[in-house]
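Hi everyone, sorry if this is the wrong subforum. Our group has a chain we'd like a structural model of before ordering constructs, and none of us has done structure prediction before. Sequence below.
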Amino acid sequence: MTELGTAAWPPAPMKTERLVLRESEARDRAAFVELFASPEVGTYVGGARPREDLERAMPEVPGRRPRLFVVELDGTMIGMITLDRRDAERRGHVRPEGGEAELGYLFLPQAWGRGYAAEACAAALDWFTGVHPGEPVVLSTQAANDRAMRLAAKLGFTEVERFEEYGAEQWFGVWSPATR
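Answer:
Right subforum, don't worry. Here is the predicted structure as tokens:
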């Protein structure tokens, strides 16, 4: 298994038809606060966090770490994508030792329903394939999250299993560049 940290970071900004995926900058702070404080965004990820707490605790440049992409539309952050190792202690793996790359994403509600998440996630998966050829990517979401389930299918994730976690049924799938 290749360590995710071995790829040079940050990569050059990636451009899609409508979006730019790039490293976080100080100008993204307000959008990060909005993202984590949004009740709509928090519906399937443990709930919204209090805005005051976020304002106080959020670093000047939030999200600046390897494998976290800010998704930008017309110069403004509309979401974020992460590709981190799935904790081996959690349920849901495609390898006995666990530690697969896991796709995560959050988008502001005003960006929903326009295909931005699919476009940005596909670009992130393409980048990942380029730096980690042959590595599978996993995704877990609440089975009740219809939007996330449709996006997983659109991106080419296939169901591996379902299980109970965080008090809800979770859908767990895998994506492989070989089956794309």
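For your construct planning: The radius of gyration is 16 Å. Strands lie at 14-15, 19-22, 68-73, 76-85, 101-107, 137-142, 158-165, 168-175.
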